[in-house]
UniProtKB/TrEMBL annotation:
<dbReference type="Pfam" id="PF03484">
    <property type="entry name" value="B5"/>
</dbReference>
<dbReference type="InterPro" id="IPR004532">
    <property type="entry name" value="Phe-tRNA-ligase_IIc_bsu_bact"/>
</dbReference>
<dbReference type="InterPro" id="IPR005147">
    <property type="entry name" value="tRNA_synthase_B5-dom"/>
</dbReference>
<keyword id="KW-0694">RNA-binding</keyword>
<dbReference type="InterPro" id="IPR045864">
    <property type="entry name" value="aa-tRNA-synth_II/BPL/LPL"/>
</dbReference>
<keyword id="KW-0030">Aminoacyl-tRNA synthetase</keyword>
<keyword id="KW-0963">Cytoplasm</keyword>
<dbReference type="Pfam" id="PF03483">
    <property type="entry name" value="B3_4"/>
</dbReference>
<keyword id="KW-0479">Metal-binding</keyword>
<feature type="binding site">
    <location>
        <position position="463"/>
    </location>
    <ligand>
        <name>Mg(2+)</name>
    </ligand>
</feature>
<dbReference type="Pfam" id="PF01588">
    <property type="entry name" value="tRNA_bind"/>
</dbReference>
<comment type="similarity">
    <text>Belongs to the phenylalanyl-tRNA synthetase beta subunit family. Type 1 subfamily.</text>
</comment>
<dbReference type="InterPro" id="IPR036690">
    <property type="entry name" value="Fdx_antiC-bd_sf"/>
</dbReference>
<keyword id="KW-0436">Ligase</keyword>
<dbReference type="Pfam" id="PF03147">
    <property type="entry name" value="FDX-ACB"/>
</dbReference>
<protein>
    <recommendedName>
        <fullName>Phenylalanine--tRNA ligase beta subunit</fullName>
        <ecNumber>6.1.1.20</ecNumber>
    </recommendedName>
</protein>
<keyword id="KW-0547">Nucleotide-binding</keyword>
Length: 805
């Protein structure tokens, strides 16, 4: 919001405060000031000149030699390249010694041998943006009104003697998106009450609005307030300079008197308006409704918009003529031929306007205000002011009455708090008088006593609804810099990590000890990536209004983010990457409006586990390297019992022959395997292995108490067995059979050899195991071990048709 200090001075006495000081005081009350611009500090030697002659320069197709009266004894000669310069015009002249905003210093010079004693200026040379320059001055100089005084400073005519304070308005302070709102704010800061001009509308009593227009709203929730006036017999002319000046400094291009008045009122009241060409409406009926499927509307920017039932439109009873709160239709916009104006002032449902603007990628000054909220107490006042201005500037008359639908009346909000609550919250010792003064400065009615403070908040401050808001207002106006700095006082309570925190900390320490580096990925990603690698069915949770398509959905797996991180590092010539992440994934909860947030741990490796050195041979990462990390981690947690790995082909982006689900008993708790070669190739990765585990499922497992046993006094023994089985037989299946038939003294089973190749039948593999036996109470007997070992071999033969070697 760009605030003109001169415009603000129409409401308040700012003579005792400089623009810079005012900006600092505004910042101290919580509204950030982005910039204070004072063009008059750098622009000098700019005067009003009158062009007496303008002739084309010989041998030039665009330069003109002019003589300009600048209020001196003799006219000065200036060479000008503007195509619209001609005799009789009042123009802006930069005399020798002037310095323009682009750093150009004007001096006496020659162009093609012709002396030029200055420069006739265009608006962009004076610092105005191309987006605000009136169309008539886009390609040439700006012509001042005929009553401009020759020789006087040109700055006041363009408002360049003004200071502009640019405010960064947060969504909760949308009241400051209007000059009147800023007037109240600055009035509170300076302990003044702003004085606003009272506007009266002179109506044509012989005609009534009911003869001209009838307003209806299909759903009053979509448009709780809708009002319309009619101004007839108007002439659509150029706006006066004072109006153009205010619009340009606010960043809005002047168009014509009718459109400019709607923008001016929007800036002053914060109330967007829209002017229709009444005759182009071709109907007395105005119906506000949702768009129908398949309807279209060509908006003022010339684009054809495909409408849907999520869009609110203004219709002439049949077809759309405007996109409510966003932009008018090209079929009813005001033109030079317009003679009757239908002027709209309304309140539209803010969420609906925001969705419409975003879905059509069509944001405007109007839509931003509707989205953030409006002062409902000034809807009619703004309409009346605009109608009076249009009638005055266009020599028209206002038809008597207002056509309206008003489902909600503006109401003041009553908020109650206590002095003790305010002081306790702020750490202050404010008195009743101090707090009463604050509300007087804010122009709020307040009943302030030692026991209770009851504040009546006017509709212009719709952001205030609870007592915390009242405390904030007291803090702002009293002065954040006046609030003492204190430390919180509370009892020191000894604390300790919860079981979950210990679980997570142990995991983090183990992963880093295993050589993995912690990564932190963004929880939002694309809809496609969000469901990659997910162990839970269903679509991801999508945001209604994402900041971008890359941040539309909440992730269902940590692996998609880790994969992006690995790819990022590999693309920057980091060959060996090993990352892990602990974070939340998100799933739909059918019993709640909020998603379930589940803590997962995931890891990913690519490149080599061991690089080539003079001592060691290069060893690429593989499934077993990652499985070893996971097995050791589970062992650290005491969870190896009942954990097993089951091959799966159900994950599209995982290698179908090197992927397994991690199960505890029959419950899936994780995923481990190798990235699909096609996916790896698309990302320019070598073999990449990964895992992801639901930590909350593991945490819920009751491990029981830890039991300690003394070191056995008696020696153990071992037996080795080699067997040939089908290559489809899993190691885990073999171990399971060995445990089931190994007897009570079997302590451990270790695979020490796996072979396929020469002397082994195709489709089969040789596996060699070492079985350790121990009786902690006595020395084992040879026959006991032999009996149990034979039982194991027989069970293997029976279960897998194994050939014992």
């Amino acid at each position: 919001m760009k605030v003109s200090v001169k415009w603000l001075s129409e409401y308040l006495d700012l003579s005792a405060v400089s623009p810079t000081e005012l900006a600092e005081r505004i910042t101290l009350t919580g509204i950030e000031v982005e910039e204070v611009s004072m063009p008059y500090e750098t622009l000098t030697h700019l005067v009003v000149g009158e062009v007496e002659t303008a002739e084309r320069m010989k041998d030039s197709d665009h330069l003109n030699v002019t003589t300009v009266n600048v209020g001196e004894d003799e006219p000065v000669q200036i060479v000008c390249g503007a195509p619209n310069v001609k005799a009789g015009q009042k123009v802006i002249v930069a005399l020798p010694g002037a310095r323009l905003t682009n750093g150009l210093k004007i001096k006496k010079s020659k162009l093609r041998g012709v002396v030029s004693n200055g420069m006739i200026c265009s608006l962009d040379e004076l610092g105005f943006s191309d987006s605000v320059i009136p169309k008539k001055a886009e390609d040439g100089i700006y012509v001042l009104p005929d009553d401009a005084e020759v020789g006087s400073s040109a700055l006041p005519y363009l408002g360049l003697d003004d200071a502009i304070i640019e405010l960064d308005i947060t969504p909760n302070r949308a009241d400051a998106l209007s000059m009147r709102g800023v007037g109240y704010e600055v009035g509170a800061i300076l302990s003044q009450k702003p004085a606003f001009e009272e506007v009266t509308v002179e109506e044509e009593q012989s005609e009534n609005i009911s003869d001209w227009v009838n307003v209806q709203v299909e759903d009053e929730k979509d448009a709780p307030v809708y009002q319309m006036r009619v101004i007839k017999d108007v002439e659509v002319t150029e706006s006066p300079l004072w109006l153009q000046r205010k619009l340009m400094h606010a960043g809005i291009r002047p168009i014509d008197a009718i459109v400019d008045v709607t923008n001016y009122i929007m800036l002053e009241y914060g109330q967007p308006l829209h002017a229709f060409d009444y005759d182009a409406l071709d109907s007395r009926e105005i119906l506000v409704r949702r768009a129908k499927e398949g309807e279209t509307l060509i908006t003022l920017d010339g684009q054809e918009r495909q409408l849907s039932p999520d869009h609110l439109v203004i219709t002439n009873g049949q077809k759309p003529v405007g996109l409510a709160g966003v932009m008018g239709g090209e079929n009813t916009h005001v033109t030079k031929e317009t003679r009757t104006v239908a002027l709209e002032s309304a309140v539209f449902e803010s969420v609906l306007i925001r969705k419409t603007a975003q879905s059509l990628n069509l944001r405007s000054e109007s839509s931003s205000r509707f989205e953030k909220g409006l002062n409902r107490a000034t809807v009619e006042q703004a309409l009346n002011h605009a109608a009076a201005l249009m009638a005055s500037l266009g020599n028209g008359t206002v038809v008597s009455g207002i056509a309206h639908v008003e489902a909600q009346k503006p109401e003041s909000q009553t908020v109650t708090t206590t002095l003790a609550y305010i002081n306790r919250t702020l750490g202050t010792a404010l008195t009743v008088a101090d707090v009463r003064t604050v509300f007087e400065r804010l122009d709020f009615e307040a009943d302030v006593t030692e026991e209770t403070i009851t504040v009546t908040v006017p509709p212009r401050r719709w952001d205030i609804a609870i007592q915390a808001d009242i405390v904030e207002e007291v803090a702002r106006i009293y002065g954040y810099n006046n609030i003492p700095s204190t430390l919180p006082t509370n009892e020191s309570v000894p604390g300790e990590l919860t079981r979950e925190q210990k679980f997570e900390r142990l995991t983090r320490h183990y992963m880093e000890g295993a050589g993995l580096t912690q990564a932190i990925s963004y929880a939002l990603t694309t809809s496609a990536e969000a469901k990659d690698f997910s162990m839970e069915p269903g679509d991801p949770i999508e945001l209604d209004w994402p900041m971008s398509e890359e941040h539309r959905a909440l992730r269902k797996s940590l692996l998609s983010g880790l994969l992006d991180n690995v790819q990022y590092n590999v693309a920057r010539q980091i060959k060996n990457v090993a990352l892990y992440e602990i974070g939340h994934v998100f799933h739909h909860n059918p019993n709640s409006t909020l998603p379930d947030e589940i803590n997962h741990v995931a890891g990913m490796m690519t490149g080599n586990v061991v690089d080539n050195t003079w001592q060691e041979t290069e060893q690429p990462v593989d499934y077993f390297a990652m499985k070893g990390i996971v097995d050791e981690w589970l062992d650290h947690l005491g969870l190896t019992e009942d954990i097993h790995y089951v091959p799966t082909k159900s994950y599209e982006k995982m290698h179908p022959g090197r992927t397994a689900e991690i199960k505890w008993k029959d419950q899936v708790v994780g995923l481990i395997g190798q990235l699909h070669p096609v996916e790896a190739a698309e990302r320019d990765l070598q073999d990449t292995v990964l895992f992801e585990i639901n930590m909350e499922k593991l945490f819920a497992i009751d491990k029981g108490d830890v039991k300690y046993e003394s070191v056995p006094k008696y020696p153990g023994t071992s037996r080795d067995v080699a067997l040939v089985v089908e290559e489809s037989v899993l190691h885990e299946e073999i171990v399971s059979v060995m445990k089931e038939h190994g007897g009570k003294w079997l302590q451990s089973i270790r695979l020490f050899d796996l072979y396929q190749g020469e002397n082994i039948q195709e489709g089969k593999k040789s596996m060699a195991y070492s079985l350790a036996y121990l009786n902690p109470q006595a020395t084992l007997k040879e026959e006991e071990v032999t009996r149990d070992f034979e039982a194991v071999k027989n069970a293997l033969i029976e279960a897998f048709q194994a050939e014992i070697r």
